[in-house]
Amino acid sequence: MKKINFVIFALAFFLLAMPLTLAEGQSTTVCCEKTIDGLWCQDTESTQCSTQHTAAQTSCSQTSFCQLGTCVNTNSGVCTSNVPRQQCLDEGGEWFNQDRSEIEMCAGGCCQIGDGVAFVSQTECKQLASDYGVSIQFNAQITDEASCLELAEPTDTGACLYDEGGVRSCRMLEKSQCISTGGNFFDGILCTASELESDCSPSSETTCYNDDVYFLDTCGNLANIYDPLYDPNLKEDAWGNTQRDYWTDKIIDYENAGLDLEGDCDYALGSTCASDRGVDFCKDLSCETTIDGEEVIKNHGESWCAETPGTLHHILVDPETMEYLDDSREKLIENYDEYNIPGSRYVRLQCWEGEVIEEPCADYRNEICKEADIGTETIGEEFTVAQCRANPWRSCLNITSKNSCEDQYLDCIWVEGYRFDGQELPTHRREQEQGSCLPLYAPGFDFWSEDLGGESVCASGNVNELVLYETHWLTEEREELEFDKKLATQNCYDNCYSVPGYGEGISEEELKRIHEGTANFVDAQQVYISDRLGYYCEDKTGKVNVLEIGFEDGGIAEGTFSDKIMCADESYQPLFYTNENWLNSLKMRTSLLGDCGYKNNLVGEYSDNSTQIITTLFQQLTQKGEVKVNSTSREIYSGSSWTGEDERTNQQINENTE
Amino acid sequence: MGKKGQVTIFVILGILIVIAGALIYFFMPGVKSTFTGLETNPETYLQNCIEDDLLNLSLTLAKQGGEFNPQSYYLFEETKVNYLCHTSNYYDLCVVQQPFLREHFEEELTSAIQPTVDSCFEELKEDYSNRNYDVQMRKGDIQVKILPQKIDLQINNSLTLSKGEVLDYNSFNVVLNNNLYQVLAVMRSIVEHESVLGQAETTDFMTLYRDLKVEKLKQTEGTKIYKITDRTTEDVYMFASRSQVFPPGYY
User: Fold this and answer.
1) How high is the pLDDT of residue A573?
2) Cα separation of A305 and A361, whole Å?
3) Are B158 and B140 a contacting pair, CB within 8 Å?
């Protein structure tokens, strides 16, 4: 029986983390009642506290002097929430340990002062009355600002006629105003009504009022909404009863009147009154922009995601379920190293009154911009809304099964292979549980900082692999294992996928069948796979059986395997079948963890090669597994390629495996 | 008389008219003051003298979040923008730093405009003195009030002008048409949202206040700069807030 040595193992590291130094030492965090730069109630370093105020060796939320409540200015009636007690007192206010909504004097209502309104407390309203020297009306029944602001525009105006010495002047006023100023009020008609015989006549002058274009009469009063059909500059024969009636009755409900008027702008549908060089018109509030290289028009109120570099553009989701409605998810998976790269940031754009407004999402890809179409189903026309959505990437790392990870409502992706707990599960559990759940949107880290930087996150992607080789103790091959790819791949006994070039010349499917015992070896000269029985079968040693098969000329092909491995079965499978698969899995895992490993940033600069390396250490072991000889640790892979020092790179291994 | 003679007479008459006008201008003070355009109304004079400074100060204050010399600020586009709500911690909601924002603005403006008021009154006094008025002035306090659609500067200086008749003024008002009151109300509301919810939705405010453009600019370390632009006047108002911040690498 041949004596077999387990000779050497190689220890391989795959370092993912960016090179960072951990912070040394600790700072003392205290609660400063007031800091030296004037901030109230901050948890910060003790050196930042003002000596004129209190400090405590605890968080501010645990102190009484930084207890937050409602601060009320009893003179002006102003109420502010979340104010520290001492600060409130210093400002001359009265502090309440209650929510603002629970304090009666803070209750808001609608304060009408002349033509204006303000949504304030009653005390504040009285103060305004005193400041203006006028009487006010406070309506406590109106409890929201929008309803209050609507009251600013009086609608129940009518013609208020003044007869002074035979001259009949007219103004459009509310009834109460009219009567209080000694006028005669005529409800529902305009000053230009002929029966009033006022000195006001129709004019072509217009003005913007309530988002619409309105006629003005010669006295400067508002008439009805503008339309050229009712312009008094019309030719005389075009001016008839229709026009006269339009300048008589005040129209209140234009919708029910069934009039299609040029000056009737519609803010909700994207137009409003605007003036340009003295001309009032309904201005289109939509925005021109470029999306995917095409000029498009976005409606007022629409929002969408900006095409910022390094991000996936226009991720379309269902507005209610957030389910992906396009191939964004597939794109993110297939091109994981092109998106969410260091420095990239999502930005939301919005069209508002003809202007595109930018709103950057949170940096470090803590927020992702997603779009939804809420218009097609409701109004029959596309109307996109975009949001900066939180990227809860850490929750992915805690998921340990494929089905849960690939839930359509989660932004996670399952990468087969290594688990974060390092376990290698039995074959029957591997499909669902042998892998890592990673974020679809790699988060960013401030990797330049000493305090944070995601080092621990990146480090969770590190792996160690122990590769075993089996050689005969009489041979000299062991010295060559470190540098001879063919020798290394053939003599590999365990975790062979870590060996550079392992699996070349044969497909992964075929290799898998070999491990399952359902395929034959073919042409060993051209393939780089193990010929050790123990790699395919449990508790076996020695080479795979070799049968000679002849060539047509009767010659013998050396080293040709033609047997199935009868003891191989699918219950004894490696984590990976080829070195390429192993490396690709690691790189994907690294990339998706965050700003880890060898990556390019927004401007195309790559990180240092040392951020992603494989090092090897060869050790010769005795039969008992004790270390006999140590070699020097060597770096064989850095950045995105095998290093030139490794002779195996000269043996048909692809330089750039990306 | 020949034509030449007529022309000569007209020329001489013209010269005489010019000389007479010059004599009147230099030797009759009442006429002189009219010709130079000096206001006889001290209220109008003060309005013209003070309003530009008042406007500039209010714009500076508004752009820097309510402080002329901010101590706790975020440097945004070379402007020191004061924090109105702040927390040093991650995840926590911010603590309101200025509970009475409008009152604070009024105080800041009142202090800042005082030198201009003093200077304008000195000029006014000198001007009237030069016109042989007896000027008695007693300095009082000043107060800026920010009201809907205007900023009202009340000056409680008393002024007595005597020259034949006596003109008494007990106080003066300088009024600036301005939207600061409405903007401050919006700022207060945004700060309320920041301190209670962690952030504010800008569209809500733009829907209510159509003449305002409200932008929320998130900075890398977590600060938000709120920038409010009055679409009518193009005036810009800004403040900083740091609330419910998630650190890089954690979520």
Assistant:
1) 87
2) 10
3) yes
Determine contact, residues A501/A651, Cβ cutoff 8 Å. Answer: yes
Among A111-120, A631-640, B52-61, which range has the highest average pLDDT? Answer: B52-61
- The answer to whether A405 and A578 have CB atoms below 8 angstroms apart is no
- Give pLDDT, residue B115: 97
Q: Is A164 exposed, middle or buried (0-12, 13-18, 19+ CB in 10 A)?
A: exposed
Among residues A388, A454, A426, which one has the least CA distance to residue A596? Answer: A454
> pLDDT tens digits, residue range A407-417?
888 899 999 99
| Residue A225 and residue A212 in contact, taking contact as beta carbons nearer than 8 Å | yes
Quick one: average pLDDT of B106-135? 94
Question: In A, which residues are within 8 Å of B219 by CB distance?
Answer: 363
Distance CA B117, CA B159 (A): 14
Angle, CA A439 vertex, CA A435 and CA A442 arms, to 5°: 125
Flag if B148 and A113 touch (Cβ within 8 Å): yes
Q: Measured between beta carbons, which residues in chain B are less than 8 angstroms from residue A355? A: 213
Taking the CB of residue B174, how many other CB atoms lie within 10 A of it? 24
Q: Find the length of chain B.
A: 251
For residues B246 and B228, the answer to whether their CB atoms sit within 8 Å is no
Which of B71, B196, B248 minimises the CB distance to A364? Answer: B248
A151-155, B173-177, B226-230: least confidently modelled range = A151-155
SS (H, E, C) A65-114: CCCEEEEECCCCCCEEEEEEHHHHHHCCCEEECCCHHHCHHHCEEEEEEC
Does the beta-carbon distance from A149 to B208 stay under 8 Å?
yes
Test mutation, A42, A350, A391, chain B, max B CBs within 10 A? A42
Angstroms from B86 CA to nearest CA on chain A: 8
Which chain B residues touch A350 with a CB distance below 8 Å? 203
Which run of H or E residues covers position A616? Answer: strand A613-616
CA distance B142 to chain A (A): 15
- Residue A622 CA from chain centroid, whole number: 55
Helices B42-63 & B101-130 angle (0-180, nearest 10): 150
CB B175 within 8 A of CB B191: no
Cα–Cα dist B229/B210, whole Å: 11
| Nearest residue in chain A measured CA to CA from B189 | A80
ipTM: 0.80
Indicate the SS3 state at residue A17.
coil
By C-alpha distance, the chain A residue nearest B102 is A78
Which one of B96, B99, B148 has the shortest CB-CB distance to A116? B148
Beta pairing, strands B236-242 & B79-86: parallel
The CA distances from residue A388 to A37, A322, A369, in Å, are 33, 12, 4
